[in-house]
Amino acid sequence: MWILWWIIFGAVVGWVASIITGNNARMGLLKNIIVGLVGALIGGWISTMIGIGTYDGFSLNSFVIAIIGAVLLLLVVNLFSRHRR
């Protein structure tokens, strides 16, 4: 059951991050889930490294950290995809 919660969490985080970065029209559910989960890992790793918080399950703090990580991930992906064109 916990994997279902992680998938839902990833989908919501990825969706919010795609809206913030303007990628919402190009992303589907699967990409939102992947971006949300990878973004949560990136955000948790960065926040732990700089000492502003930890990624410790489902909380508002974890949600914000995951969104920040997902936004950073999408910004980097957008940066590289613009150079390819």
Which key terms come to mind for this protein?
single chain; 85 residues; mainly alpha; 79% helix; globular
Describe, in plain words, how this protein is organized in 3D.
By secondary structure, the chain is an all-alpha fold. It is built from 3 helices and no strands. It is globular. The N and C termini lie far apart (42 Å). The relative contact order is 0.18.
Distance between the termini: 42 Å
Total helical elements: 3
Q: Which stretches are poorly predicted, pLDDT < 50 over at least 5 residues?
A: none
Net shape: globular
Largest sheet: none
Structural class based on helices, strands and sheet pairing: mainly alpha
Fraction of residues in helix: over 70%
What's a concise summary of this model?
The chain has helices at residues 2-21, 29-50, 60-84.
Write the layout of secondary structure elements.
Elements: H1 2-21, H2 29-50, H3 60-84
